[in-house]
Amino acid sequence: MSYQRSSLHQHKRIVLKIGSNVIASRDKGLNEARLIKIAEDISFLREKGHELLLVSSGSVLCGTEKLGLHGPPRTIPMKQAAAAVGQSRLMWAYERLFEQYQIKVAQILLTHDGITDRRRFINARNTLMTLLEFQVLPIINENDTVAVDEIKLGDNDNLAAQVAHLVDASLLIAFSDVDGLYTADPQKNPEATLIPQVDAVTKEIEAMAGGSRQTGGTGGMTSKVKMARDVAAYGVTTLIINGTTSGQLKEAFQGKPVGTLFLPQSVRLSSKKQWIAYSLKIKGTLVLDEGAVQALIKKGRSLLPSGIQSVEGTFEMGDTVRCLTSTGKEIARGLTNYNASEMMRIKGLQSSQIEDQLGYKGADEAIHRDNLVVLNGTT
Predict the structure, then answer these.
(1) Is 181 in contact with 262 (CB distance < 8 Å)?
(2) H helices of 100-240, where?
(3) I want to staple 219 with a disulfide (CB 3.0 to 4.6 A). Which of 51, 102, 163, 223 is the partner?
């Protein structure tokens, strides 16, 4: 039994994420028998003193069955209609099941905008923390009925990572319909083996996730490994277990080697830098020369215009841009001090030349170090 496994019970605040295929299907709708088991597991953890938040998928699948659709909804309006019908059914089921354990629940619907805006981010955090103070179980989902971008591009693995950040959780548990991360797709390769622990998410680990069986929801194993990688940067441990197999959650907290455990990074980003790195949408790209790359990675410097080789995208001052090496490797993200057209004009220039080029100077730096996150575990 590894130290990490035996110490799971030490995590006080935990985010639980349940995938669509764990609790629902398009033809049968909600699987209440499985929900009952999950409610029992959550009650078990709460009795042990853990604070829990539940990120639950399944509204679209529930709505698809309720509307009698033959096959998945193809258009955005149909997906939104299915989500609207399914979300109410999903919450009603949770309300009834948790009432048996004297657990009060609250529905929280979030959008990407609710996380990227700093004031809304803090308001969402305050709401969730207040619910925990009142011992209410927040049940969180994306607001699929209005958030077009979330249905097209998002998934609840990303949302679970954002919630872990919002509330400073130390453990994220993802219920999937597979046992964890395998070395290859076990349905295609009989020699594939379950990976019990991942110390760091490398390109090799990401490649294994891409070769693993994907779930039928918007997220798959690739999405879950990305989630584990992202939350590791802010000190969160991730455990992926099979939510279709009864008892795995309790076994995990007994120190048994179920699922795949992802360890956190030893250096934890500040809340602001977590927000910059993982909550904000990327609006543009800056390609840097080798001198600027080394200044950011090894010396912790700000990014100056002189180190910028090329500018891509349309962005405004204060937007998030990513910083790439000349070979295309992303090494940093940050909030820019200039918009795209200004950046095009000052790239390659010394800071002393900015005012001559633009007729004004907002700042010496293209991105100040306080608004810059180096994506290698350092800041």
Answers:
(1) no
(2) 113-116, 118-133, 148-153, 156-167, 203-211, 221-232
(3) 223
Is 46's pLDDT higher than 60?
yes
The whole-angstrom separation of Cα 195 and Cα 200 is 12
Mean pLDDT rounded to a whole number for the chain: 87
Query: Which residue type occupies 92?
Result: W
Distance between CA atoms of residues 51 and 14, nearest Å? 6
What are 58-104's pLDDT values in tens digits?
888 888 888 888 888 888 888 888 888 889 999 999 999 999 999 99
Can you give the pLDDT at residue 150? 44
Please report, for residues 172, 280, 300, 346, the alpha-carbon distance to residue 296 in angstroms, rounded to integers and kept in the order given: 30, 20, 5, 19
Domains of the chain: 3-268 (3.40.1160.10), 281-374 (2.30.130.10)
- Give this prediction's pTM: 0.77
Q: Among residues 326, 345, 338, 324, which one has the least CA distance to residue 366? A: 338
Q: Among 316, 190, 251, which Cα is nearest to 1's?
A: 251
Other Cβ atoms less than 10 A from the Cβ of 93: the count is 21
Rounded to whole angstroms, what are the CA distances from 41 to 89, 93, 131, 215, 245? 21, 16, 20, 22, 12
pLDDT digit string, tens, across residues 110-133:
877 667 776 777 788 889 999 999
What is d(CA 313, CA 72) in angstroms, rounded to the nearest whole number? 34
CA 217 to chain centre: 15
3-state secondary structure of 278: helix
CA distance 333 to 323: 6
